[in-house]
Amino acid sequence: MATSLTEIQQAHAHMIKTGHSHDSFAASKLISFATTNPDPQTLSYTHSVFTHIQNPNSYTFNTIIRAYANSPTPQNALPIFLHMLNDGDVFPDKYTFTFMLKACACFGGLEEGMQIQGHLLKIGIGCDLYIQNTLIHLYARTGCMETARNMLDKMPERNVVSWNALLSAYVEMGMMDLASELFDEMEEKNVESWNFMISGYVNAGLVREARRVFDMMPSKNVVSWNAIITAYAHASCFKEVLVLFEEMQNANVKPDNCTFVNALSACAHIGDLSQGEWIHAYIDKNGIGIDGFAATALVDMYSKCGNIEKATRVFRSTSRKDISIWNSIISGLSTHGLGEQALQRFSEMLAEGFKPNEVTFIGVLSACSSAGLLNEGRKIFDLMLPVYGVQPTVEHYGCMVDLLGQLGLLEEAEELVRTMPIQEAPVVWESLLGACKNHGNVELAEFVAKKLLELNPQDSAGVESSVGRWDDAQKARSKMRAKV
Question: Which residue of 147, 287, 300, 409 has the lowest C-beta tally within 10 Å?
């Protein structure tokens, strides 16, 4: 079956060659194949195929309308629907209306959806269960919650999809009180109903409520487990993440990449190398491809658990690298004091066409600081904005102050801090104050301390207290590195 754009084009060329390009059935099949992956390029090509069909049938119309409803440009379904209405020989059916109402919900077309509803009532199919479910979805997604609720209450027949259409909208809009009331009323629930509630509580930061719903579930799928594991990960309860991961294994629910990322991140945060290695072995044993977020999480785990050699091996073995995994290995090498190797990876990254972001530069500048690479650090910092379009932040200035400060270039560091465009950045001034203390420059230390008191008049503890907060600068940059 043709799925990629190239395969679809080849199939279309064959149809033209054999004289089947105008055959409605054959063209409909081609459009059906093309719309299994409705990316903009494929849809554009599919649309051009559609326009050359002499007598498209309802299946053909429905297929292209459905594709647009599921695409990033659902509004493009509207002119095709109007074409269908004006055709005269082909009439929309309940599937056409269902796809169109879904498209309207996706692009916020409340007015268009109401016109379609009027047409439905006119031709007498407005009471169809699937159409009514989609209407609830439309009104809920466009903010007409009361109308959606009234529709649900007046439906002569309801199924779990009807309830879920409104429940998911309440959850998405953060209306958890209303969602909870509706959930308690539901005549029937499926696993998606429970998952909606868990996700809603997780997004609201209500971990205890999410756990209560999770524990009450009659059956759980991978989405359920991932939702509650993510809740504990976001709450920094990393030991609980690993406990749940083990329980998930015991429940014979197969983890996916989302599960692995959360579990590996938990291992990284608590330094549990053995558990991280077990997860890595599980991934290998089950033939799960390591790429994307999972590969980055593995590199990050090994780096933070002290095994930079394994982190490097995972990085090297990852065939499809993205900016996150480059950032992770650069940051890891920097943290382990391997500044020159980190800069080598940075050069490789640029050579392979990846564009660095602000996290990349935190790792690279930290590498320069750890290795005392003054010229490289100056050059990279000066190129951030004009060449790569990355505006230096407090963390980047902090890295440069670290570098200049440890080499005793206090006047240059002071000039950099004094002229930086970022206002009220005490953490950078504190970094400079720490460098002054290390090099015994009392005069500059007094000036910096006065500046700190200007930024924070309530802080009157003096130079020694400010120096004691030197760790804050390091923590701020560590927090940035953790974003890789």
Answer: 287
**In this predicted structure, what is the pLDDT of residue 271?**
93
Q: CA end-to-end span of the chain, whole Å?
A: 38
For residue 376, the surrounding DSSP H or E stretch is helix 374-388
Selected residue with higher pLDDT from 290 and 75: 75
Chain centroid offset of residue 58 CA: 37
Mean pLDDT calculated for residue range 98-110? 92
Tokens 């031709």 correspond to what residue? 123
Under 8 Å between Cβ of 11 and 2: yes
Of residues 17, 89, 78, 15, the one with CA closest to residue 49? 15
Q: What is the mean pLDDT of residues 166-173?
A: 93
Q: Check residue 479 and give its pLDDT.
A: 53
Task: Please check the confidence at residue 221 and state whether its pLDDT lies above 90.
Answer: yes
Compute how many other C-beta atoms are within 10 angstroms of the C-beta atom of residue 190: 15
- CA distances in angstroms from 19 to 22, 168, 221, listed in the order given: 7, 48, 48
pTM exceeds 0.70, yes or no: yes
* Nearest residue to 156 via CA among 183, 129, 130, 117: 129
Average pLDDT over residues 72-100: 88
Pairwise CA distance, residues 370 & 9, whole Å: 53
Q: How many residues does the chain have?
A: 484
Question: Could you tell me what percent of the chain has a pLDDT over 70?
Answer: 86
Q: For all residues of the chain together, what is the average pLDDT?
A: 86
> How high is the pLDDT of residue 1?
47
List the one residue out of 197, 192, 204, 167 whose CA is nearest residue 182.
167
Angle, in degrees to the nearest 10, between helices 358-371 and 323-335: 20
Contacts of 37 (CB under 8 A, 6+ apart): 3, 4
Contacts of residue 349, defined as CB under 8 A and 6 or more positions apart, other chains included, come to 326, 330, 356, 360
* 292 in Cβ contact with 257 (< 8 Å): yes
Would you give the distance in Å from CA 292 to the centre of its chain? 12
Give the C-alpha separation, 248 to 251, whole Å.
5
Residue 157 per-residue DSSP state = S
**Which tokens belong to 298?**
């593995």
